[in-house]
Amino acid sequence: MCKLHLKDLLQECFISKQNIIKNRFPKNIGKDYMEKVNIQDGFLLLKTNYTFNQPTQIESRQNKTKFVIAMSLKGNSTYTNENDKKIVPFKEGFTTISLFEKTQGYREFKDKEIEQIRLILDEDFLQRNLKKSLLEKYFINSDKYLNLIHFSPTLIQSQILIKEILTCQLQGELKKIYLQSKSLELLHVELSKLNTKEKKIILDNYDKEAIRKAKEILIQNIQNPPSIVELSKLVHINEFKLKAGFKEIFHTSPYKLLLKYKMNEAKIMLESGEYNINEVANLIGYKFASNFTNAFFKRFGILPKDLMKKKEYPQIHQNL
Questions:
Q1: pTM for the whole structure
Q2: With b meaning 16 or more CB within 10 Å and e meaning fewer, what string describes 38-67?
Q3: What number is the average pLDDT over the span 99-114?
């Protein structure tokens, strides 16, 4: 699989005064096309179309906090956060709503053609327009780094609006006003479904046993845990019920539970004095010790190296 650096290839689209950036990929990789439309300050409409000659992985770094609504029109891809291994799916015909907070990871493209429409909102826009419904709900109360907020089939109403945006034949000021109105309407449609109350899921004894088994599978495969899709297949329940069941039984998501377990195990190993930081990072599934150090500090508020020196640091008991 070919590996590229997003900052070296596509960052120009965000800082350039040009609205269209294309042909930044090396020719052996494929072709790229990006078009941006500034709807308002802090609100960007981004149209992307990639054609790959081979499976490609693009490393990316997000230095600012962004609320992103991505509608996948063609092809499938994923984004994996390097810090906590969370995966955000981008599936043809689906809308992915996610919160990126200073993330570093990689996007993986296996399909030949990828086409997406993205609505990208920054904190300033949310502060001005959506403080109660989005900023306080998802930013202030969220975990750092990466949060998948909603993933579902793209609504028919949204599909119609996207088609109107892509086929707009207007020019000049009229085009700008038209795209602004349609983008705001699309934003309204997508955000409205976040306010829809979810039905409480009913778990029978089989479901509960499957969810407890899923927890054990995660813990037993701490170095290389299965994805949500793989995990749901292993315990024979669907993905929605698996995630909802974890929330109901363990009051957290599968990978937040796993991360907590990893950090507690790491703390025990470090305090034992039998392992160094690199060994602990490797044992709990981190490729890079720096990523482990960041996750550990976020969990306990102390660096691993300082913990090893500070014998009196209080024990953290596992309560998984």
A1: 0.60
A2: ebeebbbbbbbbbbbeeebebebebeebbb
A3: 84
